[in-house]
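Minutes, project check-in

Agenda point 3 was the complex the collaborators sent over. CS summarized: two entities, 322 residues total, and the question is how they sit relative to each other. Sequences were read into the notes so everyone works from the same version.
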Amino acid sequence: MTGYELHKQNRERAKDLTGKHRDFYNELNVYINAGDADERAAQEMFSEILDHLFEAQKEGKSPQALYGKSPKEYAAELAAQLPKQTMKTQVLSFTYLSFFAAGVLLAFDGVMKLFLPNTFNTTFLLFVPVLLVGGFVTLLTLRLMKYSAFTRFKIPWLAMIPQAAYMILLIWLLLEYRDLFAYDPPWYIYLVTAAACAGAGLAAKARMPY
Amino acid sequence: MFSKSQLLKGILEGCILALIHRKPAYGYELSVLLSRKGLGEISEGSIYPVLLRLQKEELIKGKMVPSQSGPSRKYYELTEKGGRALEAFKEEWCELEKAVTAILESEREKAQ
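CS then shared the predicted structure for the full assembly.
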């Protein structure tokens, strides 16, 4: 069974959790997944935690029997013992995310340019800052998600902060370097570059161990 | 001096090694076995960080085993290194138990 299949199995099973058991499991997922734990090892652990939560649910026991005093401390304890992702995997997932983001942007622009050439004013070179900053924003978002777990902050709100800063940065770049971003090639250049980005992203993903 | 929880952690590790040595087991099964043997006081969830640590130290290894009725489960078995660690734990525990018993008995005699 691969890490991905296990991930899917866990996600399906988790749908049968209810109430506090479900909340605890979801927050634990946010906390662990936003960290740098090895994905495969983390999913194996989640399947054990699920077993335990289901039994607790069946016996009418609170999930507190599982995590003890503090759910966040318990999550931190688990995270500390989980094997870490290798540097290689981290770099690869970073590359994958960056190229994926740039590819989506370019493909969207290309299609818009092809079908609505007069209503949509695109900027081709915007994919360069997206490539450079997109990955960092994702990492920052993940870090914030980790700290928001088990707090009253719900994830989307906190995750909005880096995303909003990112958008502001892109808009500022556009206004400040208008001449530079004025370069506007035909639509197929957009799509070809989008495909190249997607290819680079997929190549990085294929080299990841799961 | 170590705290009570540190002492308990060491004992928990040793007990988990001993249980797995007898028969490969999965996480929840281990937690049930431990509480049935009288170690239910320890917070149930504390076995999962311990299982992760034992794997990291290569004392046990886990294998996902598919089951017909439900989801795949991770069964643990002892490694060679784990076998040696279990022997060492048994020796240490015997010495500790002897020492503590001796002290408690001499205390009781004095009291009488």
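Noted in discussion: The longest helix of chain B spans residues 80-111.
Follow-up: revisit at the next meeting once the mutant set is ready.
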